[in-house]
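USER:
Class, as today's exercise, take the chain set out below, and explain how the chain folds.
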Amino acid sequence: MVKRINKSSLERFIKNDLPKKLQKDLQDLRIIREADIACCVYFHLRRFIGSDKTLKVFAERPSKQTKHIVDMVIFRDFPNKSPDPRIAFELKWNRKRISKKDRDSLDQCIRKLNLGKVYFISVCKKDGVNKVIKSDLEKFRLFEIYIYPNLPPSKYKEWDARRAKVKDKF
Protein backbone atom coordinates (compact mmCIF):
# COMPACT_ATOMS: atom_id res chain seq x y z
CA MET A 1 0.00 0.00 0.00
CA VAL A 2 1.26 3.44 -0.95
CA LYS A 3 1.44 5.93 1.87
CA ARG A 4 0.66 9.48 0.81
CA ILE A 5 2.71 12.22 2.49
CA ASN A 6 0.59 15.19 3.55
CA LYS A 7 1.79 18.78 3.41
CA SER A 8 2.14 19.27 7.18
CA SER A 9 4.28 16.15 7.68
CA LEU A 10 6.51 17.20 4.75
CA GLU A 11 6.95 20.70 6.21
CA ARG A 12 7.65 19.24 9.66
CA PHE A 13 10.35 17.02 8.14
CA ILE A 14 11.93 19.99 6.34
CA LYS A 15 11.96 22.22 9.44
CA ASN A 16 12.90 19.64 12.09
CA ASP A 17 14.50 16.47 10.70
CA LEU A 18 16.24 17.74 7.56
CA PRO A 19 18.47 20.24 9.44
CA LYS A 20 19.62 17.48 11.80
CA LYS A 21 20.40 15.17 8.89
CA LEU A 22 22.29 17.93 7.04
CA GLN A 23 24.26 18.76 10.19
CA LYS A 24 25.28 15.09 10.47
CA ASP A 25 26.26 15.10 6.76
CA LEU A 26 28.34 18.23 7.37
CA GLN A 27 30.07 16.68 10.38
CA ASP A 28 30.75 13.47 8.42
CA LEU A 29 32.24 15.48 5.51
CA ARG A 30 29.53 14.55 3.05
CA ILE A 31 29.10 18.29 2.46
CA ILE A 32 32.13 20.25 1.31
CA ARG A 33 30.54 22.68 -1.15
CA GLU A 34 27.17 23.82 -2.52
CA ALA A 35 26.63 20.93 -4.95
CA ASP A 36 26.99 18.50 -2.03
CA ILE A 37 24.15 20.29 -0.21
CA ALA A 38 21.84 19.71 -3.18
CA CYS A 39 22.80 16.03 -3.30
CA CYS A 40 22.18 15.54 0.43
CA VAL A 41 18.89 17.49 0.46
CA TYR A 42 17.67 15.50 -2.56
CA PHE A 43 18.69 12.20 -0.94
CA HIS A 44 16.95 12.95 2.37
CA LEU A 45 13.79 14.27 0.70
CA ARG A 46 13.51 11.22 -1.57
CA ARG A 47 14.01 8.88 1.40
CA PHE A 48 11.33 10.69 3.38
CA ILE A 49 8.87 10.78 0.48
CA GLY A 50 9.46 7.07 -0.10
CA SER A 51 6.72 5.35 -2.04
CA ASP A 52 4.45 8.39 -2.48
CA LYS A 53 4.47 8.48 -6.28
CA THR A 54 2.58 11.80 -6.37
CA LEU A 55 5.52 13.80 -4.94
CA LYS A 56 8.44 14.62 -7.22
CA VAL A 57 11.69 16.39 -6.33
CA PHE A 58 13.57 18.31 -9.01
CA ALA A 59 16.95 20.04 -8.75
CA GLU A 60 18.03 23.12 -10.73
CA ARG A 61 14.50 23.69 -12.02
CA PRO A 62 14.02 26.63 -14.42
CA SER A 63 10.63 28.33 -14.20
CA LYS A 64 9.02 30.09 -17.14
CA GLN A 65 6.75 32.05 -14.80
CA THR A 66 9.46 33.40 -12.49
CA LYS A 67 12.32 33.54 -15.01
CA HIS A 68 14.60 32.08 -12.30
CA ILE A 69 16.32 28.75 -11.83
CA VAL A 70 15.31 27.40 -8.44
CA ASP A 71 17.80 25.09 -6.69
CA MET A 72 15.16 22.51 -5.72
CA VAL A 73 11.39 22.20 -6.08
CA ILE A 74 8.91 19.65 -4.76
CA PHE A 75 5.90 19.02 -7.02
CA ARG A 76 2.65 17.19 -6.43
CA ASP A 77 1.90 15.28 -9.63
CA PHE A 78 -1.41 13.47 -10.14
CA PRO A 79 -2.24 11.55 -13.33
CA ASN A 80 -4.22 13.58 -15.87
CA LYS A 81 -3.37 16.89 -14.15
CA SER A 82 -0.52 19.32 -14.64
CA PRO A 83 2.19 19.13 -11.92
CA ASP A 84 1.59 21.48 -9.00
CA PRO A 85 4.69 23.06 -7.37
CA ARG A 86 4.47 22.91 -3.57
CA ILE A 87 7.79 23.94 -2.00
CA ALA A 88 10.91 25.66 -3.38
CA PHE A 89 14.44 25.77 -1.97
CA GLU A 90 17.48 27.94 -2.46
CA LEU A 91 20.59 26.15 -1.19
CA LYS A 92 23.83 27.93 -0.36
CA TRP A 93 27.25 27.13 1.02
CA ASN A 94 28.60 29.30 3.85
CA ARG A 95 26.22 32.24 3.42
CA LYS A 96 25.40 34.10 6.61
CA ARG A 97 22.46 35.92 5.02
CA ILE A 98 20.09 35.44 2.11
CA SER A 99 21.22 37.47 -0.91
CA LYS A 100 18.95 39.86 -2.82
CA LYS A 101 19.00 37.56 -5.86
CA ASP A 102 17.95 34.48 -3.85
CA ARG A 103 15.31 36.44 -1.99
CA ASP A 104 13.89 37.78 -5.26
CA SER A 105 13.84 34.25 -6.67
CA LEU A 106 11.95 32.91 -3.65
CA ASP A 107 9.58 35.90 -3.60
CA GLN A 108 8.77 35.25 -7.27
CA CYS A 109 8.01 31.62 -6.38
CA ILE A 110 5.56 32.84 -3.75
CA ARG A 111 3.92 35.40 -6.06
CA LYS A 112 3.89 33.71 -9.45
CA LEU A 113 3.80 30.03 -8.52
CA ASN A 114 1.57 30.69 -5.48
CA LEU A 115 3.77 28.60 -3.19
CA GLY A 116 2.80 28.49 0.46
CA LYS A 117 6.34 27.80 1.67
CA VAL A 118 9.83 28.53 0.37
CA TYR A 119 13.09 27.74 2.13
CA PHE A 120 16.55 29.26 2.13
CA ILE A 121 18.99 26.66 3.46
CA SER A 122 22.58 27.65 4.10
CA VAL A 123 25.19 25.22 5.38
CA CYS A 124 27.92 27.19 7.16
CA LYS A 125 31.34 26.38 8.57
CA LYS A 126 30.85 28.67 11.59
CA ASP A 127 28.03 30.34 13.55
CA GLY A 128 26.99 33.93 13.01
CA VAL A 129 23.82 34.64 11.07
CA ASN A 130 22.06 37.86 10.10
CA LYS A 131 18.46 36.84 9.49
CA VAL A 132 16.45 39.13 7.24
CA ILE A 133 13.49 41.23 8.22
CA LYS A 134 10.57 39.71 6.35
CA SER A 135 7.92 41.54 4.39
CA ASP A 136 4.22 40.79 4.91
CA LEU A 137 4.35 38.49 1.87
CA GLU A 138 7.27 36.52 3.34
CA LYS A 139 6.23 36.48 7.00
CA PHE A 140 4.69 32.99 7.10
CA ARG A 141 6.07 31.69 3.81
CA LEU A 142 9.84 32.31 3.68
CA PHE A 143 11.91 30.26 6.10
CA GLU A 144 15.65 30.49 6.67
CA ILE A 145 17.47 27.40 7.90
CA TYR A 146 21.14 27.65 8.86
CA ILE A 147 23.18 24.51 9.46
CA TYR A 148 26.46 24.51 11.43
CA PRO A 149 28.87 21.73 12.41
CA ASN A 150 28.05 22.51 16.07
CA LEU A 151 31.24 20.95 17.38
CA PRO A 152 33.30 21.87 20.47
CA PRO A 153 36.39 23.98 19.63
CA SER A 154 38.85 21.07 19.87
CA LYS A 155 36.72 18.86 17.59
CA TYR A 156 36.04 21.79 15.24
CA LYS A 157 39.76 22.28 14.53
CA GLU A 158 40.14 18.58 13.76
CA TRP A 159 37.02 18.62 11.55
CA ASP A 160 38.16 21.73 9.67
CA ALA A 161 41.62 20.19 9.03
CA ARG A 162 40.02 16.97 7.70
CA ARG A 163 37.64 19.04 5.59
CA ALA A 164 40.55 21.01 4.10
CA LYS A 165 42.33 17.76 3.14
CA VAL A 166 39.23 16.38 1.44
CA LYS A 167 38.57 19.71 -0.29
CA ASP A 168 42.16 19.93 -1.58
CA LYS A 169 41.99 16.47 -3.20
CA PHE A 170 39.61 17.75 -5.84
In short: The first strand starts at residue 55 and ends at 62. DSSP finds four helices and five strands in the chain. The helical segments are 7-27, 34-49, 100-112, 153-168. The domain at 7-161 is CATH 3.40.1350 (Trna Endonuclease; Chain: A, domain 1).
